[in-house]
Amino acid sequence: MTSMGTTTFEVAVNLIKLVLVFLMMVQLVPILVWLERRGSAFIQNRFGPNRVGPLGLLQLLADAVKFLTKEDFAPEKGNRLLFYAAPVFALVPAAVAYMAIPMSVPLKFNEYTFLIQGYEINVGIVFILGISSLAAYTILMAGWGSGSKFSLMGALRASAQIISYELALGLSIVGIILLYGTFNLSEMIHAQQGIFSFNAFGHNISASWLPNWGIFYQPVGMILFFAATFAESNRLPFDLAEGEAELVAGFHTEYGGFKMLMFFIGEYGHMMIASGLMATFFFGGYSIWNLTPQEVYQWCFNLIGNEFWAGAMNSLLHFLSYLVKFGIFLWIFFHVRWTLPRFRYDQLMDLGWKTMLPWALANTMITALIIFVTSYYVL
Amino acid sequence: MTADVFLFWFLAFMTIVSGLGVVLMANPIYSALSLAMTMISVAAIFVTLQAYFLAGVQIIVYAGAVMVLFVMVLMLFDLKHELQAFTRGRATGAIKIATVGILSGLVVGAVTIGLTIGGKNQAEVASATKAAGIVDTTRGLSEALFLKNVFGFEALGVLLLVIAVGTVALSRSKGGTHARD
Amino acid sequence: MNQQALIAILLLSPVVGFFLNGLRFRSKNYILAGTIATLAVVISFVCSVLLFLDLVGMPPEARRITANFFEWIAVDKFKVNAGFVVDQISSIMILIITGVGALIHLFSIGYMHHDKGVTKYFAYLNLFIFNMLILVLGDSLLTMFVGWEGVGLCSYLLIGFWFNDSAKAAAGMKAFITNRVGDAAFIIGMFILFMTFGTLNIHELNALAPTALEASWLGAVTLGTLMLFIGATGKSAQIPLYVWLPDAMAGPTPVSALIHAATMVTAGVYMIVRLNPLFISAPNTMMVVAIIGAATAVLAATIGLTQHDIKKVLAYSTVSQLGYMFLAVGVGAFGAGMFHLMTHAFFKALMFLGSGSVIHAMHEEQDIRKMGGLRKYLPITHATFFLGWLAIIGIPPFAGFFSKDEILWKAYSSSAGHILLWAAGVIGAALTAFYMTRLMALTFWGKSRVDKNVHPHESPISMTIPLIILGILSVIGGWVGIPHVISQYLGEVPNFWEHWLAPVIRILPLAPAEHGADHEALEWTLMSVSVGVAAISAISAYIMYTKKEGSADRVAKAFGPVYQLVNKKYLVDEAYFKGLINPLIRGSKNLWYYVDVNIIDKATYKVTDIVRGGGSFVKSLQTGNMQQYAMYIGVGVVVALSFVLMR
Amino acid sequence: MPETNIITTIGPEHYLVLSALLFSIGMAGVLLRRNLIVLLMSIELMLNAVNISFITFSHYSGKVEGQIMVFFVMTIAAAEAAVGLALAVSIFKRFKEVNIRFFEHLKG
């Protein structure tokens, strides 16, 4: 499972690391908000926030202050306990799941090895799927606790959507799990490092100019997974939980101020998890194109000559690589939101159950078949 | 007291308290939420018993799907406080509570007596565990599931299909949800 | 390449095709669908050829490739593997299935292009190929039965393909239900064989069979094989279960060619050939098979004389030709049966596809009275159909001649044969020649009776290529099994067919009377008799239907009632309804009224009265309060547990 | 026999007792509660208690079969919940009532 280490030093570092990763996740949110607003403005030929600070960067700070100082009220007819608990629960699963994603190669310091992630879990994929499936509670709690019919209907829509797409989401990555034979995210990344190479019918097939990423083996799984994560995080084109005309703002209609902000963080957290998992499953995680970490380390060592600093530089380079992939997927999230129209609710359900689920099933079966045939028979 | 022991007592406490919450809360929504809490605690207990995969499945299936269903239904019904949360009748009530009490007493007694007198003592059990080795590799689980018990697995699949059809038949509205006219 | 992998690819390629087309069944892109489906079957065909070449490379006694994929069912001693065998017999079958199948897939692209469900159609076709391959490759009767049922399903789906037409949907159901009768017998046969031999593995059954030779009618082997044969009469359209096949022509014509002529309907013959040692151990069954085969051959041929629907004629012809095959296996000429199976697959698939081409050209007109003179509009179709015609009426050196002659010779000379069987075969051959010539004459020759609004045109190239290939095969297909009497004048061409099948097929000895010097002369005589009769019959039909207009009607009038009877297919369907189905319904109704209502119900009412009396006493316990029940359970558990613990 | 502390040494009986207690709680819920849906939830509680026992035995005997059993129990529990809820929903739609006492007279 997970171990916090044996010595005091190790435990302390691991705890600090945990806090840092959490803070990183939370602090990314305002930046992403700014990015999304600027980006959407760019797409729509507007300026976006540009008054407060250089390029409007301080707008985030102003927003935060605004949120914090707003009046904190709760609807009279609602259930106060659930109403207040919901935003907290929105934040927790997202943070817990995000922290399990590895972000760079482990850093060696003396006899210690520190993983660049919150904590490592043996069955990380199952864990993340499980934790993120808890998001439905938040929505239901918020929706029901608000005591408003718009909130309740929005919550029912959103949670039904999340449960439905959970299936497609889970099934779409079965192929990749079969391929790498592990639930462990680090092992999965490890398997994708280096050049494109695989064994089939007893022969090795490789291409040195391609990385050994999952997308080349599971393109259908990749598309299904990415589409399902859009639905899981209630983003456009699947943001059916909201609707100015019929549902106002969905399950968080009654929320304002800081509680609203926490829902925001939860939503962005889901996007971050989705982007991180996309990178991890299909794009080699933190690995740099078709180089293995050993090769990168060797290069750093030749450059610097100090083992620790070379290792640190290695980790940093890989972390940057991860950030680039992470950022690209986040940008795709934004871009899709501002370019695609939304679905109707029945279309959404049809897509999930009648299109994505069969395709995910077929992908699973065909993958299993191919893995069996190519590994069992020798030509 | 090591971390493992502390973890067990903590989880046991959580499980029992949230389990009691299911039964004792008058508002069914709180019951359902405590049941979800119980499920998560049970998943954590699975983890302490090194059944990682099943812990994940427990969370995904129970906490993530089944309990969400419960919560959804409850919220749809919009049941607030119950006036008659518990059954009435002194005699039967007494018998019921007595039954539960005696049963739990009997089982607990049987377990402690059976394990310390009739069977091996704890040291032997512990050594036997080491000898047997850890069973939870997900691979081992899948091999047992898909090779040895594949018939049961298939039967479960059929069961689920039947259930799906039955549920849809039970809860459909007249003319279907997509009726155009 | 690994042979097991080859078998896996052979089997799975159509499945992949099925899924690729089945998942997008609403698509109307016939080119894509057809390409996927055809490609899948072509891959299978390539695998079949490779496997066949592998077999050829092995020593004759060891020609057997097995592939055990997994253990399918294991209950105590009852073990069935998902095992597949390619040997001399099944290798020929897979070549036919995938080869002819690929051609028919290709043909379908042109034929079905206007249809709305074209993708679904190709998915079904691929599924059929897969099931047929399971049927022929399965190494146990149960595996075979999986394919047996699978092809039945596909047949049903494809006959009722245009299910909006209730008559066509009903034809599908008729085929399905008639087949169920046979399948029930097949299952019973499997039970009997398993109880007797303790295995369903074909190889083991064949090895055990020679020890179980029996002469009685009620022996386990005889009963078991009889039951299997009844199953075969269902699938292969023999008396008494042949009635579904003519109706099955409601499906698309390429389907008729693939399923109801070339492959599926021959499954019964194939099954008997597979189990030949077992059937030889049961002489009585063999006799029944031969008699039913001969009777079907003649009866179906007579019905074929009077039909006006081009596909119905071919359907009855198929039934009749299947009768020949059963006649062959019934007299112990398993090789000849397989041989005819193959040649028949070529020329009958050709003729069905040809008829499809004609129907396509005539804008869905199937009545041959409204055709005629099509030769000049459809030159390629006519030429290929002509070859098929020569093949089926048995004119040397076309394919049908060799196989049919082999069957007739064995029917006469084998120790299980009889001169009456031979005579039936010759009559059947004469009738075949007559109605096929009639079909040719009314469709292609003579004066045009085509409707003014219909403008026939030759079919597109994707339809004519299969016709040409099958036409060539109809000519040369028979040359692999030239009998000794002829080949000795051709420079001793070996009889490839017999050599190939020899290790897996037991050949019955000739009847004692046929040994001796004059057996060669006898064979020549019989051969010339059958060819002569067929030729005379064909010529007379030609004169009757092209030269002397109206003579056919005069003959029909002269035979009056007999003609009517034959034209109405001997009223078999009506007789089944009158004699079997309606009495069954009436009997059930009577049973319900007299037995169920009056006896059983009354008895149960008495019982209920008693029980109700007791129940009203116990009723007080049943309050409907579920929790109280749960409490009873809890108390019971507590009592039981404390009893166990205190003991 | 070496004396072992019941608090600091965790053995199988701890888990089994936990399981038994959870089972009893669930059973009390089934016996005493009146809300149909809470009854269903109590049944889930009992099933979970059983699952703990299975996993415990599987872990301490080193055999994986116990986990298979848990797998099956989970599936059946999910199925049961689905059907139970569907029934509850259709009953509620008709009678606007989920009290179990209300259904005593649903006799066939």
Write up what this structure looks like.
- The complex is a heterotetramer of chains A (379), B (181), C (647) and D (108).
- In chain A, β3 and β4 form a beta hairpin.
- The longest helix of chain A has 36 residues, at 8-43.
- The mean pLDDT of chain A is 83.
- Chain A has 13 helices and four strands.
- Chain A is mainly alpha-helical and 379 residues long.
- Chain B has a domain at 1-85: NADH-ubiquinone/plastoquinone oxidoreductase chain 6, subunit NuoJ (Four Helix Bundle (Hemerythrin (Met), subunit A)), CATH 1.20.120.1200.
- Chain B has helices at 3-24, 28-48, 52-77, 90-118, 122-132, 138-148, 150-171.
- Chain D is mainly α.
- Chain D has a domain at 35-100: Helix Hairpins (Orthogonal Bundle), CATH 1.10.287.3510.
- Helices cover 72% and strands 0% of the residues of chain D.
- Chain D has helices spanning 12-32, 36-61, 65-95.
- The termini of chain D are far apart.
- Chains in contact: A-B, A-C, B-C, B-D, C-D.
List the helices and strands and how they pair.
The complex is a heterotetramer of chains A (379), B (181), C (647) and D (108).
Chain B: H1 3-24, H2 28-48, H3 52-77, H4 90-118, H5 122-132, H6 138-148, H7 150-171
Helix pairs in contact in B: 1-2, 2-3
Chain C: H1 3-22, H2 30-57, E1 64-75, E2 78-87, H3 88-111, H4 118-137, H5 141-159, H6 166-197, H7 202-208, H8 220-235, H9 244-247, H10 253-262, H11 267-274, H12 276-280, H13 283-306, H14 310-330, H15 334-361, H16 379-392, H17 399-413, H18 419-443, H19 461-476, H20 484-487, H21 496-501, H22 519-547, H23 551-567, H24 572-618, H25 626-646
Antiparallel strand pairs in C: 1-2
Chain D: H1 12-32, H2 36-61, H3 65-95
